[in-house]
Specification:
Radius of gyration: 22 Å
Number of helices: 3
Number of strands: 0
Number of domains: 1
Structural class: mainly alpha
Strand content: under 5%
Shape: elongated
Distance between the termini: 61 Å
Order of helices and strands: HHH
Length: about 80
């Protein structure tokens, strides 16, 4: 039985990867606390998805810079 919150049902899907990659993952997880290749790949994918999502969010700095550009364009009559 899976650990975790018993009130939450999780849904899963199957993703295929090349056998040589699976073998490499099996070697990697021998030296970690991961109990399976699935657990390891799930962890890696969550990290990657978080990074991609974070890179798509405008940072405060870019928003500020964008605002300054709009002010300058407005002052020049372009906006």
């Amino acid at each position: 039985m899976k650990k975790g919150n018993p009130g939450i049902k999780r849904k899963y899907t199957t993703i295929t990867i090349p056998t040589p990659l699976f073998a490499r993952i099996q070697e990697i997880i021998k030296e970690t606390g991961f109990s399976s290749a699935s657990d390891y790949v799930t962890y890696i994918m969550r990290e990657m998805v978080s990074e991609v999502q974070a890179s798509k969010k405008p940072s405060a700095r870019s928003s500020k810079a964008e605002g300054e550009v709009i002010k300058k364009l407005r002052a020049l009559g372009y906006v």
